[in-house]
Amino acid sequence: MILHLYFARRFAAVFMMITIVLFALVVLIDGVDQARKFGSLNIGWKNIMGLTLLNTPQTINLILPLIVILATVALFISLARSSEMVVTRAAGRSAMRALIAPVVVAFIIGVMAVGVLNPIVAATGKRYLQLSESYRAGGASALSISDEGLWLRQGSALGQTVIRAWRSNDDASVLYDVTFLSYAPDGGPTRRIEAASAALTDVGWSLRDAKSWPLQAGTNAEGNAQYYKNLTIPSTLTLERIRESIGKPAAVSIYDLPEFILQLEQAGFSPRRHKVWLQTELARPFFLIAMVLVASAFTMRHTRFGGTGMAVLASVLLGFGLYFIRSFAQILGENGQIPVVLAAWAPPTAAILLALGLILHAEDG
Q1: Which residues, other chains included, contact 315 with Cβ-Cβ below 8 Å and sequence gap of 6+?
Q2: How many Cα neighbours within 13 Å face the side chain of 220?
Q3: pLDDT tens digits along 19-45
Q4: Which residues fall within 8 angstroms of residue 127, CB to CB, at 6 or more apart?
Q5: What whole-number distance in Å separates Cα of residue 303 and Cα of residue 297?
Q6: Ramachandran region of residue 44, left (φ > 0), alpha (ψ -120 to 50) or beta?
Q7: In three state form, how does the secondary structure of the chain look?
Q8: Over the stretch 273-324, which tens digit does the pLDDT of each residue have?
Q9: Side by side, which strands form the sheet with 159-168?
Q10: What are 226's strand-pairing partners?
Q11: Is the full-model pTM beyond 0.85?
């Protein structure tokens, strides 16, 4: 038990050290990228640094499997150089028993990544999107899906417009039973429009069978209402930005994702991408376990045998290969080519079995 705790403490310490180093590196690189994107808008270094810190958790969450591989490699190479692994083997501990502590720590890291890091990434990613849209367009653009339908907000220097639709087609290009509420820059309402449908085109929203009410103070709204067979309203939104807001499952906390999937179905959108993401997140602890097993399969050896550099390179490349296969399976699941459960759970299961096969072959020949 003491030896397991020792290995667990060493692995956790190495993992934290590598995470801190990569966090600083990501902040530096992403800060330069944010300065390139928003430097021409003259928003100031303080705001650029804020955008960088908001975007960094998403990157750390993305490279978490790489951090686990590097931590495992560093742990077993240090144990091999200090001959601690040789002593462990001489004491009768097999390689499989020596892996219990790192595997348990990796599983705990995976659970914390799903339960703690995922909501943080969702919150910071949503805030980053809001701020970046605000800096680019001069006003915030937002999207929300609830039991009351689909809500959009577009903004510009001329004011804000709130859009509500009861339903949409699959790709969000056409909204049905739509209401537009326009507000002046000072916050007062100026116009209300209801339409049977609204299609987003290059020139703005194209409304069909619309009725417009002026909402200025002292104006008879119903008496001055106007009917339009076709009406065009300028918009700062694009289909790509709407689809990106809807199609980013990472922007929704895993605790809210099941309810969000139901709301997507009610609004007329396909929730398959979010279902695949939910299952992939639930399988993340087991994928991190696979990364530990893959890295240990190449590095649980004494340094006097030589070839340490090639072993490290092989473990990292195999880890990248498994990550690529996981991403490819996720894309197939999102496109409906394979079942959702298979897309999420097959890669970590196959990776664990592959790594166990490599370890057993190295141990027993």
Answers
A1: 69, 72, 73, 294, 295, 297, 298, 299
A2: 3
A3: 999 999 999 998 888 888 777 777 778
A4: 54
A5: 14
A6: left
A7: CHHHHHHHHHHHHHHHHHHHHHHHHHHHHHHHHHHHHHHHHCCCHHHHHHHHHHHHHHHHHHCHHHHHHHHHHHHHHHHHHCCHHHHHHHCCCCHHHHCHHHHHHHHHHHHHHHHHHHHHHHHHHHHHHHHHHHHHHCCCCEEEEECCEEEEEEEECCEEEEEEEEEECCCCCEEEEEEEEEECCCCCEEEEEEEEEEEEECCEEEEEEEEEEECCCCCCCCCCCEEEEEEEECCCCCHHHHHHHHHCHHHCCCCCHHHHHHHHHHHCCCCHHHHHHHHHHHCHHHHHHHHHHHHHHHHCCCHHHCCHHHHHHHHHHHHHHHHHHHHHHHHHHHCCCCCHHHHHHHHHHHHHHHHHHHHHHHHHC
A8: 889 999 999 999 999 999 999 888 887 766 555 567 787 788 888 888 888 9
A9: 142-146, 149-156, 159-168, 174-183, 189-201, 204-214, 226-233
A10: 212
A11: no
Residue type (1 letter), 281: E
Range scoring the smallest mean pLDDT among 4-8, 121-125, 262-266: 262-266
In 3D, which of 281, 239, 288, 235 has the Cα closest to residue 261? Answer: 281
Q: Strand pairing of 159-168 and 189-201?
A: unpaired
Q: Of 242-251, 296-305, 306-315, 331-340, which has the strongest mean pLDDT?
A: 331-340
Instruction: Identify residue 47 by its one-letter amino acid code.
Output: N
- Which residue matches tokens 């990157």? 59
| φ and ψ at residue 82, rounded to 5 degrees | -90, 5
